[in-house]
Amino acid sequence: MPLTPLRLRLLVASLLTVSFLGALDHTVVSTSLATVAGELGALEHMSWVVVGYTLASTVLLPVLGKLGDVVGPRNIFLVSLVVFLAASLACGFAPTMSWLIVGRVLQGMSSAGLQLMSQTIMAQVTTPRQRPQYMAIIGAAFPIAILVGPVLGGLITDLWGWQWVFWVNLPLGLAALALAIFAIPHIEPGARRAFDGMGAVTFTIALVALVLAVSWYPDPELLLSASLATALAAAAFAAFVLAELRAPEPIVPFRLLRNRTVGAAIALSAIIGVGMFSITAYLPTYFQMAYRTSATVSGLVPIATVFGMLVSNLTSGFIASRTGHYRAFPIAGTALGAGGLFVMALLPVGLPLWVPMLVMFVVGIGTGAFMSLIITVVQSAVPRGETGSITATTNLVRQIGATVTTAIIGGVVGVGVAALLPVGLDAASLTPQMVHGLNLAAQDLVAGIYRDVFAPVFFALAAVYVVGFVAALLMPQGRLSDDHEPASAAEPVPA
User: Fold this and answer.
1) Given 3-state DSSP classes, what are the helix, strand and coil percentages for the chain, each rounded to the nearest 5?
2) What pLDDT does residue 427 have?
3) Helix (H) or strand (E) holding 48
4) Any bridge partners for residue 479, and if so which?
5) What percent of the chain lies above the pLDDT cut of 70?
6) SS3 493
7) If you compute the radius of gyration of the chain from its CA atoms, what whole number of angstroms results?
8) 292: alpha, beta or left, given left = phi > 0 and alpha = psi -120 to 50?
9) What separation in angstroms does the CA of 152 have from each of 16, 32, 37, 149, 162?
10) Which residues pair with 493 in a beta bridge?
11) In contact, 139 and 131? CB cutoff 8 Å
12) CB neighbours of residue 429 within 10 Å
């Protein structure tokens, strides 16, 4: 569905603004959490301000993806944007933590629609050949939000108050809404209009139970509840798979996995969540303990990582649009990711900080090379009526992989450090400030412990990227088409 150049630019501006707001809302809140919890008097529920947003956005991904195919992506996008702005307004007026958590859940639900429909709409109005550069621009919203979100959240909280962390969405969101109403064309939904209600219900139960189990396991008093939640999650996931295999129009189209291009792209998306997004949250802790840096300085390593992702994401998108070829990017990207994480596992502590910064920058370069590109590839490999569902599935495996692996790494680090610490040092109360105040021998001991605990984690994540490298090699050769009409066969145009 070709658009005039002006209308396409306005559409990209609207989708980029909205994607940035959705991604920013996930990061900007982090630095205001302590203030919010203190003013609302509910410190024990503080984590649910983040967990509620993440869980809601993950649960709704396959549901909204299918709805986009059924009723059209324009309708889902506009409704999601209105709900997002209303929820942002409500969050700022929250008098209690319960109110705020409900508002964050609504924000998360609507952000899933914004993220998915932005990618789906772009797939419908561009040719596969044009798509990578535009998808890379929209995809740049996520790394930019990671870079500026925490700083921006702190400045807004200090200068205007935590309420404006949410209210700042309104002027930009309203401008994006006005652009979207004009720029997004009417897109006919697919011919089939059935909806997989059983799949939606069982998936929601399974994912909620899984997240609750992961959050409860670290507390010994909640071990029984965590075990029951795990059993419920397993049963619900089994019911979900059966429902999807029987549904005429499943929200997660498993049958498309038989397509080598789709299967490889979804595997690569999972690699990003498992191998990259999961470790980023722990890098500051690692460098504060092992390299004895301050909290501020330790943030330079994840910043270098995300900057590498941003640069290569934009570069690979523009090159793929110019040449039409894409297979080399995930092959090279996974190789760089595997090599960089392998080097991280071998680095001795005490090196200048620029060394691990450079290594993680290379890992970011490798990951960004195929981060947005595989969305384009998988969209080009399915019929038009499946665009929303396959886009949702590709994003879903990435988020689930990141969520589960983040919890696993946290458990491994917590147990490993506690087991290796000498008598007199309590892992539960160990902070960077306390370690930096110890004598030099004790600091060296703690640094060595953290290095020994994190080394197997880096090795394991390097192995994950090796699996991604194999998946990239198995991806068929192909060339992105210059045709606006989607291919009827579920494979890209041969090279």
Assistant:
1) 80, 0, 20
2) 65
3) helix 48-71
4) 325, 493
5) 92
6) strand
7) 22
8) left
9) 18, 10, 19, 5, 11
10) 479
11) no
12) 7
Closest CA to 152 of 140, 169, 137: 169
**Tokens 């089994």 found at:** 238
C-beta atoms surrounding 250 within 10 Å: 23
Residue 44 confidence class, pLDDT cut points 50, 70, 90: low
Q: How many CB atoms lie within 10 A of CB 225?
A: 14
Which residues are CB-contacts of 208 (< 8 A; sequence separation ≥ 6)?
55, 59
325: helix, strand or coil: strand
- Specify whether the CB–CB gap between 304 and 358 falls below 8 A: yes
Residue 99 CA: distances (Å) to CA of 49, 86, 95, 126, 384: 10, 13, 7, 41, 40
pLDDT in tens, 85-136: 999 999 999 888 889 989 988 998 898 899 889 989 988 888 888 889 999 9
Quote the CA–CA distance of 481 and 234 in Å, as a whole number: 41
Strand partners, 325: 479
The pLDDT value recorded for residue 429 is: 67
| pLDDT tens digits, 357-383 | 999 999 999 999 999 999 999 988 888
Tell me which amino acid residue 195 is: F
pTM (2 decimals)?
0.83
